[in-house]
Amino acid sequence: DSGVTQTPKHLITATGQRVTLRCSPRSGDLSVYWYQQSLDQGLQFLIQYYNGEERAKGNILERFSAQQFPDLHSELNLSSLELGDSALYFCASSALPVGGEASYEQYFGPGTRLTVT
Amino acid sequence: GIQVEQSPPDLILQEGANSTLRCNFSDSVNNLQWFHQNPWGQLINLFYIPSGTKQNGRLSATTVATERYSLLYISSSQTTDSGVYFCAVEQSNFNKFYFGSGTKLNVKP
Asked: Which of A59, A95, B17, B35 is deepest in the core (most CB within 10 A)?
């Protein structure tokens, strides 16, 4: 168990709908990352938040948005869903680099499997 | 962005055999991690290894950052080692994490 929790585990919805995926980072971790794993695109970085602020952006569609709340949990909102948005969505968290470290190890949650029909 | 290439894409082993998985990357990195994705989709951390060598039981990894590659060694493979092994890197100064396309390992009894 990585200590990162994600809900729900599975989600089935129709095209055009909007869903919200939730992530709680490991205790003490300030950074949260979102990833999408689809059959054709592989694992792709979407976005990173650090202590409530957006820190880096990857291949995130304009229909998608995310935020990190004061209690450090994060939500990924997916709207106007298309069939191609069906994928496994992962959240990861890491600590703040300190003492000269440029980066810290990321720990992944179990993922949310989204199926758009 | 940085290119991350993993080889081989597929690997079939008999139980007890050893194997080496490779990850090449095209630019300097702050972070390199190896993951095992099990049949249930869970990404399990194997190593955090931006440089140097680490060992954990039957698994070990080496990253030569100056030559931009990393190797994952699996010794005495077991059927439970089956799954997909991913290498992922964080490109220096970009705060973005890039995954390779993975090596799919099938260990037969």
From this structure: B35
8 Å CB contact between B49 and B29: no
Per-residue pLDDT, B14: 97
Task: Give the three-class secondary structure for B67.
Answer: helix
DSSP A50-100: ETTEEEEE-S--TTEEEEE-TTS-EEEEE-S--GGG-EEEEEEEE----TT
* Span of A36-45, B53-62, B64-73 with lowest mean pLDDT: A36-45
Instruction: Indicate yes or no: CB of B92 within 8 angstroms of CB of A102.
Output: yes
pLDDT for A40 equals 81
Residue in B closest to A89 by C-alpha? B41
Strand, coil or helix: B73? strand
CA distance B100 to chain A (A): 8
Sort out which chain B residues have CB atoms less than 8 A from A56's CB and list them: 94-96
Q: Is the pLDDT of residue B104 over 80?
A: yes
CA distance B96 to B5: 16
